[in-house]
Amino acid sequence: MSTHDTSSAVPPPGPAGPQEYPARLTARLDAPLSRWLWLVKWLLALPHHVVLFFLWAAVAGVSVVAFFAILFTGRYPRPLFDFTSGVLRWNWRVAYYAYAALGTDRYPPFTLADVPDYPAHWDVTYPEHLSRGLVLVKWWLLALPHYLILGFFVGGARLAWFSGGLIGLLTLFAGVALVFTGLYPRGLYDLLLGLNRWVLRVAAYAALLTDAYPPFRLDQGGREPGTAA
Fold first, then answer.
1. pLDDT value for 5
2. pLDDT per position as a tens digit, 53-99
3. SS3 36
4. What are the DSSP calls for 92-130, one per residue?
5. Structure confidence at residue 155 (pLDDT)
6. Which of 1, 44, 118, 220 has the fewest beta carbons under 10 Å from its own?
7. What is the pLDDT of residue 226?
8. Quick one: 93 exposed, middle or buried, by C-beta within 10 A (0-12, 13-18, 19+)?
9. Taking Cα atoms as reference points, which of 195, 133, 132, 139 lies closest to residue 168?
10. CB under 8 Å to 113, separation ≥6 — which residues?
11. Which residues of 160-193 are buried (b: 16+ CB within 10 A; e: fewer)?
12. Which pTM does this prediction carry?
């Protein structure tokens, strides 16, 4: 089970500053990367996709329970919170390895918990209190503008290593660059991390893990804004 820092509460609902947003995506670009491995990563990642299929089905049920728990108590039950955030973390590691970044050749671990030495990380601060009113509208109405943007980012089609949308297209460009140069263009990597960070922030909000509204901001690079280099 994953662990989270509970020393600070989530900020009030509304746009958060660069150092305040409770959902945090970080990653490190591994080097050197194989020129050709990315062509079969979609196949190598299939066992993860099978497991994630069932985990996401479980998240759907957990979210219903969490919805009513928040509605009546203003709290997201901690074991359910850890499970949902763990599935998002697992999904991000697989995406980083395969179809959404190609940032590492290291095979993702099969665990909900954070793996400190793995190059991709995602975490979200556990909120001591969540709004009972916002839970009724934030995941469908308030998040709608972000869904429209994310539709452009992630698309809807997936074929092998190509997942559709801007993220899939840019990841394909990164793979082609690896084939011909053996190098991952740094600017392209930073852009992909920014796009994925936006997606995961909205996912945390829609999954009821936070009341902090995702900023309409593309924070590029492997580090969260405001953190030390």
1. 39
2. 999 999 999 999 999 999 999 999 999 999 999 999 999 999 999 99
3. coil
4. HHHHHHTTS-----SPPPS-SS--TTSSEEEEEPPPS--
5. 80
6. 1
7. 76
8. buried
9. 195
10. 1, 2, 3, 86, 89
11. ebbbebebbebbbebbebbeeeeebeeeebbbbb
12. 0.88
Q: How far, in Å, CA of 183 to CA of 212, rounded?
A: 37
- Encoding tokens for residue 205? 């909000």
Amino acid at 105: D
In DSSP terms, which residues pair with 26 in a beta bridge? 121
Q: Which of 179, 184, 152 is nearest to 168 (CA)?
A: 152
Instruction: Look at residue 3 and tell me whether its pLDDT is greater than 50.
Output: no
Mean pLDDT (the chain, rounded): 90
Task: Tell me the β-bridge partners of 25.
Answer: 122
**CA-to-CA separations, 62 to 2, 31, 55, 143, 177, in angstroms, rounded:** 16, 38, 10, 20, 41
Please report where in the chains the tokens 């998040």 appear, as a residue.
143
Sign (positive or negative) of CA dihedral 54, 60, 63, 68: negative
Residue type, 55: L
Q: So what's the pLDDT on residue 9?
A: 34
- For the record, the structure tokens of 19 come out as 């150092």
Extract the tokens encoding 79: 């074991």
CA 83 to chain centre: 14
Q: What's the pLDDT at 228?
A: 59
